[in-house]
Write a structure and sequence with these properties.
single chain, 112 residues, mainly alpha, 7 helices, globular
């Protein structure tokens, strides 16, 4: 569900559709996400919109980005993983696996 939600946010940003209160409510109803999370992710993705078209796995890359950001704010790796898992309603194991697979695919594509 998170992947569909993030793909929808990416589509909204790439099509330059403004994030209105009505659109937030639509996303909230459709994906069962909090308005706070919707707005925070929209702002984050909007700031990075110039690279959105080049990101293949938006879900994993976003998890990785948020974990790294949390670790810069003096959280441990586990604390950052737990925060992201809580934010998205996933298990910490799922988040760790997605990030690990994302990092491995990024490294292998660079070395190929």
């Amino acid at each position: 569900m998170n992947k569909l939600f993030l793909e929808e946010l990416r589509y909204i940003i790439l099509c330059e559709v403004p994030m209105t209160k009505y659109r937030v409510e639509q996303l909230q109803d459709k994906f069962d996400q909090s308005p706070y999370l919707i707005n925070e992710l929209y702002q984050l993705l909007f700031e990075k919109r110039h690279i959105l078209a080049f990101v293949d796995d938006i879900e994993s890359s976003l998890y990785d980005y948020i974990v790294n950001t949390e670790m810069m704010d003096a959280k441990t790796y586990y604390g950052a993983i737990a925060h992201v898992a809580n934010l998205f309603g996933e298990t910490p194991t799922y988040i760790k696996c997605k990030i690990k697979k994302y990092r491995q695919s990024s490294i292998s594509s660079i070395s190929a």
